[in-house]
């Protein structure tokens, strides 16, 4: 936080409306924020807070919690009191849960106006949100768009994917308009599909038609191995087009992986400093050192330090296999290593050779240098 939102090189940023989710600015000129969702029982406030703290240490900036019943809505009070990041209450069906979550301090609510069980309920929810300045995130999901709408677009010659994307846009716009009719202006929208092409098409269309900030992601993307790739392609495409104000990588797995993947996507799009950027070669028949093991150890070391709330002052760390590209990249980095023909690690620091080390001693040297260049940043 605090850093200015950077513009991706590929496209100018969509000019979205600025809203506030607790202390986090979303849209306008704010940096793209990383969200995740707890998978603890929200009624267990202590367990939920533990998970929120762990996710925050990894870089999560806004957290969503499921609110399926009144006890979960009540637990928001204790969670909100100690959460280091804003808490979004995820509501379905029962508008009274949205009211209770807001009364208990939720920084935002996420709901689908279409699935609330009481028509007058939405008006009450909207009135309280406006009174308290609480934003509402609406979301259309390809799993719940109206079949008739999809068919209508298909009958006009669109493919099924195009028709679903159109239906997602219509459904999200309808939800926004409904909230607007009750005076809500602090709206954030999401248009989710588990298909990358549909997701990207829907966000593009919606982005062109409104200035609402967008929460982007590919929903139900799957287990980490597949889901991270789908999310990186979908979210990355949108970010490079200047679309997206907050993101969630949605994975069937530990939410910690969602946050780490979200951070890496922002880093890869040039929207967040990697601190340090770690570059490593793919290895080939010339590699005579355990480069993969070494690169993994360096990645883990950096991740561990970051997880403990440290900032790493090194800008670029290079882990390279041999003398072909190794010395060039390693010399260009703040800290670099290149394998040599006799299995040694040639270490470079700020462009100068430090020496040739045996693998264990070389890693220890690397580790000390990274630790030496780490400072504790504390809470942010
Ligand atoms: Fe192969 Fe050397 Fe290039 Fe690594 S740096 S991919 S080991 S040629």
UniProtKB/TrEMBL annotation:
Keywords: 4Fe-4S, Iron, Iron-sulfur, Isoprene biosynthesis, Metal-binding, Oxidoreductase. It catalyses: (2E)-4-hydroxy-3-methylbut-2-enyl diphosphate + oxidized [flavodoxin] + H2O + 2 H(+) = 2-C-methyl-D-erythritol 2,4-cyclic diphosphate + reduced [flavodoxin]. Binds 1 [4Fe-4S] cluster. One of its GO terms (biological process) is isopentenyl diphosphate biosynthetic process, methylerythritol 4-phosphate pathway. One of its GO terms (molecular function) is 4 iron, 4 sulfur cluster binding. Its cofactor is [4Fe-4S] cluster. Its EC number is 1.17.7.3. Pathway: Isoprenoid biosynthesis; isopentenyl diphosphate biosynthesis via DXP pathway; isopentenyl diphosphate from 1-deoxy-D-xylulose 5-phosphate: step 5/6. Residues 17-262 form the IspG TIM-barrel domain. Residues 277-367 form the IspG C-terminal domain. [4Fe-4S] cluster binds at residues 281, 284, 322, 329. It is an enzyme of class 1 (oxidoreductase). InterPro entries: Dihydropteroate_synth-like_sf, IspG_bac, IspG_bac-typ, IspG_C, IspG_TIM, NO2/SO3_Rdtase_4Fe4S_sf. Converts 2C-methyl-D-erythritol 2,4-cyclodiphosphate (ME-2,4cPP) into 1-hydroxy-2-methyl-2-(E)-butenyl 4-diphosphate. Belongs to the IspG family. HAMAP family: IspG. This is 4-hydroxy-3-methylbut-2-en-1-yl diphosphate synthase (flavodoxin).
